[in-house]
Design a protein that fits this description.
- The chain is α+β, with helices and mostly antiparallel strands.
- Helix content is 18%, strand content 26%.
- The protein is built from three helices and eight strands.
- It starts with a strand and ends in a 5-residue tail after the last strand.
Length: 141
């Protein structure tokens, strides 16, 4: 299992027919972690290098479920890079876009296999997904 900056990352196999943001987060919690949060460009590259090989989109812990436009990580980590929508570091220039006609119904984010950046999507069942659990080893007993 890969390690990066004191954290362990574990691939979560999800049903090929479809899985949700909550499926991935609950599986990560069962492993004593959370869905992956990205706190640096290096961490994003690490995730892409280690989990992009599966040719699937990756559920992340990024969401704006509580307040539209206020992106948070499920593990509560810093949202600095996540909130910097104009830098292009995590989000491509047209993301997050809230969904068709800007209906604001895309409340969770995946790492796109094709762009290797975050894309906001609806919190609904999606095929061809994996999860990545991020486990902080400094908090383990």
């Amino acid at each position: 299992m890969p390690f990066f900056e004191g954290k362990e990352y574990i691939k979560i196999d999800l049903p090929s027919g479809g899985s949700t943001f909550n499926d991935a987060e609950n599986a990560a919690i069962n492993l004593k972690g959370h869905s992956v949060s990205i706190n640096s460009q290096e961490e994003l590259q690490f995730i892409v290098d280690n989990f992009g090989i599966y040719n699937k989109h990756i559920w992340t812990g990024a969401n704006d479920i509580q307040i539209e436009g206020d992106w948070q990580w499920t593990d509560g980590s810093s949202t600095g890079l996540l909130s910097d929508l104009k830098s292009g570091d995590l989000w491509p220039t047209h993301e997050p876009n809230g969904g068709e006609d800007n209906r604001a119904d895309e409340d969770v984010a995946v790492i796109s296999h094709s762009t290797t950046k975050l894309h906001d999507v609806m919190n609904a069942s999606r095929p061809n997904m994996i999860g990545v659990a991020e486990i902080d080893l400094s908090n383990s007993s």
